[in-house]
Amino acid sequence: MTDIPLRLFDTYERRVREFTPLDPAEVRLYACGLTVYDYAHIGNLRTYIFEDVLRRVLEYNGYRVLHVQNVTDVGHLVSDADTGEDKMEKGSRRTGKSAWEIAEFYFQAFQADLARLNVLPPHIWPRATDHIAEQIDLIRCIEAKGYTYLARDGVYFDTSRLPDYGYLARLDLEGQQAGARVEVGEKRSPTDFALWKFSAPGEQRQMEWPSPWGAGFPGWHIECSAMAAKYLGPFFDIHCGGEDHIMVHHPNEIAQTQVCYGTRLANFWMHGYFLQVDEAKMSKSAGEFLRLQTLIDRGYDPLAWRFFCLGAHYRAKLNFTWEALEGAATAFNRLRIAAHEWSAAGPGTPDAEFLQRFQADINDDLNMPRVLALAWELARGPLPPADKRATLLEFDRVMGLGLAEWQPSADEVPAEIAALLERRQQARREKRWQDADALRAEVRSAGFEVEDTPQGPVARRAR
RNA sequence: GGCGCCGUCGCCAAGUGGUAAGGCAAGGGUCUGCAAAACCCUCAUUCGGCGGUUCAAAUCCGCCCGGCGCCUCCA
Q1: Distance measured from the CA of protein residue A304 to the C1' of nucleotide B11, in angstroms
Q2: Which residues touch A353 (CB under 8 Å, ≥6 apart)?
Q3: Which of the nucleotides lies closest to A44 (Cα–C1')?
């Protein structure tokens, strides 16, 4: 608990403002989930780490949080064109699995990634395909209010009827129209979007449902409005997602909800900014992308990725380079080793002044880079080790680096390496330094680094 | 064409009016038979460039240069 007010940046108002819960008993948080047609890449994961930090900060402030995150397990069109291919069906053809299997497989993989990053799972994880009825109901509501029109390929939302459409994005509708590059198709205006899409005539989709307008599938914005309203009500505390949602997805969610419920859906709109690789966005459509597993295969602890993400503010782009990741991994290791060594000193007490500064930093729009700097100041400062550890573990309630349970792991050493180490020890006892160094070189060329400790030599797998 | 962001040490990155956080790397040192690991010290009079406002600017304003994102599935 803290007396420092929590201040968060709200994209809707484009400013940092004090957060006060709509209902003091429970903060309601909705996060846009992943479309599970492929693995998550490390850029996707950066956003979920940001949302996890947000949730942990809310909880650190003493709030009980109800966290809902959707699973988009129904395909949406790859492009805006009528003939656009469905991502789920595309994945199905690529792998030979059914669209349903694809969704399940990648949803599991996504959950595993989040778990490896210490991202707390949402309390409710609603799937779009489990809420078709809710989505149809919402579309009917929008239709009843007169904000839809029927086109050959689906039911559309008529954005021209909403005077403040796109306020979140500060859209300039005139400018949009002047420069639209998008195929408008049957849409009356470029910002209109599908609420329900009809299955293409003569094409059997794996995922389709009957509806009052014809067989098909929901548009990709409607699921969030429908499921958020179902689990959190039509007006809740915080809605978050990636920065890419500021322009289209979130304005559309707001438009749908506004028409049906008269609210702007969420009190705070928060957006995590993109990870860039070599100063450019990493995109799935471009083919190659980095997964968490890619980093693990290169010898990195998945939590080193979390540590790396913590080093930049969530509202700033983060540029990925292997050199920077290596730096984060080294720093993270030093910090966790230090924290482990402090544990030998027994239980301690968190330092009040550090705690105060920590709370000021997290409550200042989740300034985790400063928390990291504070952790180093703590680590290298004069406090008793036990108190350092107690303080750092408090920080870790938000950092989520698993410092409390971490133990240095002695790598499994193959028998032949162990034998070399023993021979080296023998040489050292006999002060045959040349032989000892030659043996160490042998161990090293086998991929292990030798460390002589007071308890004897230890071999670690080199990266 | 529209909306918006960014340019801070070799790399990553805080800092939005009061005189440059932090991490990594690098250099030096302690320890060590030598290393490694760990620890300690050092490391941007300067914030893309040029003007302007101000007692004071990396922070505000203007122009220029460079980079990027969204507007289309996207975290």
Answers
A1: 16
A2: none
A3: B75
